[in-house]
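Q: What would this chain look like folded?
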Amino acid sequence: MRQFRKFLNEVINLPYKENLNSHEHEKSVRDLLEKKFKKIKYIYQPNGSQQYPDFHFIEDDEGSLNRDLDCKSCKTSGKPMYNSGMPHLDGIYIFTTKQYGNTLYFGQDVCSPDLQKALQKEREHLQRETEKSNKRLAKHPDNDRGWNIYFRPDFNNKGESSNYFKHPRRTEVEQSVLEYYDE
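A: My prediction, written as structure tokens:
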């Protein structure tokens, strides 16, 4: 576990690399593992390149990890994109930006289980409303080509407190991850 903490301390200091289409951020994390932390066992992109997680850690010489790590990046915004998903509660995220550098967090530290339940409830409500709208649209006399509304939720952060680097709990959230592996 100490090896994993050392890895996390170094990964948080990696230079910015874009991740959007090139997966450079992920590759720099993988290079760090391959060159410096060879004892840490992992599977890279176990569910494919577009699915969570980017890394599944199996174990190191000091014990079981069974933890996932996902890489997020953007150039200027201080908030990552999750698109139609939400942060995985027990997943570790390394978020890098050209403007702010890197931060590290557990999914549950940025979106609690209770908040995720509330978001999911609202998502389901919007899906039901979209279905009702589509039934009405299907009956429209000019809709002979099957026009409807495709609902795809996009979970994101909004407002001043959405910047992960300026958030008052940033240090606490980073320390939560590092202290977890302080055994």
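Residues 2-111+155-180 form one domain.
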